[in-house]
Amino acid sequence: MSDLVSSASTSDVPATPRLRGTVALLVPAAIFLAFALAPLLVHAGLDPFYLSIVVRIMIFAIAAVSLDLILGFGGLVSFGHAAFLGIGAYAVGILASHGAGDAFLQLPVALFASAVFAFLTGWISLRTKGVHFIMITLAFAQMAYFMMTSLSAYGGDDGMTLWTRSTVAGSKVLGDTTAFYYACLGALILSYAICRCLVVSRFGRVLRGAKENAVRMEAIGFDPFRFRLVAYVVSGMICGLAGFLLANHTEYVSPAYMAWQRSGELLIMVILGGLGTLHGAIIGATAFLFLEEWLAGFTEHWRIVFGPLLVLVAIFMERGILGAVTRRRR
Fold first, then answer.
1. CA gap 166, 151 in Å, rounded
2. Closest to 284 (Cα-Cα) out of 250, 258, 319, 260
3. Which interval of the chain is the signal sequence (predicted)?
4. pTM here?
5. At 176, is the secondary structure helix, strand, or coil?
6. Among 24, 63, 124, 304, which is least packed, fewest CB within 10 Å?
7. What's the rounded Cα separation, in Å, for the pair 204 and 249?
């Protein structure tokens, strides 16, 4: 996995600054506009089931964008990122089981719990690098996974069902399909905007500099560890937001949200779309989930076909879908 990420991040596609700037503005705008107009297709007669798929895509796109922040710009290959997804989801489920079903309580708890977990695990993990970092993030995620499977009071390995979505100041506005759809879209745009502001700022330049040469950054007076830790915490909080939305979307919480397979899927989404672009993570999540849904319609053994397709993408599209499109346009 680390070799795949390395090849994806070092094989740059030549492009003029003006072209890169245009793509960085127009592609996200087109993506968000397409998401915003999707509910109109349902009113025009499209099966509402597809709208549910788009909601799932937006939720996982939030998680993928959060991972791209530390992977694409910080070079941190986290194989346990799904732990934050599960923490955000369980914040909803556990509080709801105790009668606290309002989003104004659940969301801050989800973000705070994700931030604490990210800070504690990041403080240890970021003192390692390479394969050691990959394995230690995987270990922490598996610890969280097995802890939740052992909590029989909250469903254990079977998970727990939510009887209703979170309320907002006592209102059941999220129970409306369209309102929840646009809440997810708003969360995606906000997450993207936060990450974009970070990567184009001085903070982002230091983060990218530490990815290229941490020793040089230390020599000019910056502490890469602190910048990476802040990025790791922010990334964890944004993924916790995705977990909060996922629990409300499925109305179900399970330890499977934290499994290493889910972390692997998030990595694939980021690499598939285009590493280090943010909007590439959204494209990757869209392509991954649509392809998964399409193949599952043909056979229950769709993973046998899906795996080789991903290998072909890694071989022939080194910069992912976004890089291939940009090269084609040039």
1. 22
2. 319
3. none
4. 0.89
5. coil
6. 304
7. 32
What's the pLDDT at 217? 87
User: What CATH number did the domain enclosing 232 receive?
Assistant: 1.10.3470
CA–CA separation, 182 and 254 (whole Å): 25
CB neighbour list of residue 127: distance below 8 Å, 6 or more residues apart: 225
Written as six digits, the tokens of 274 are: 């285009």
Phi, psi of 167 (to 5 degrees): -85, 160
Nearest to 65 by CA among 91, 31, 90: 31
For residue 187, the model assigns a pLDDT of: 96
Instruction: Spell out the residues 6+ positions from residue 16 whose beta carbon is closer than 8 angstroms to its own.
Output: none
CA–CA dist 124, 140 (Å, integer)? 10
Give the Cα-Cα-Cα angle 236, 242, 246 (nearest 5 degrees).
140
- Residue 113's contacts (CB-CB under 8 Å, 6 or more residues apart) are 87, 88, 91, 240
Which tokens sit at 173?
Answer: 């506005």
Number of domains in the chain: 1
Stretches in the chain below the pLDDT threshold 50: 2, 4-15
Chain segment 160-205, per-residue pLDDT in tens? 988 888 999 888 898 888 899 999 999 999 999 999 999 999 999 9
**3-class SS at 299?**
coil
H/E element, 160:
strand 160-161
Range of the domain at 188: 2-329
Which secondary-structure segment (H or E) carries 88? helix 82-97
Q: How far apart are CA 63 and CA 90, in angstroms?
A: 16
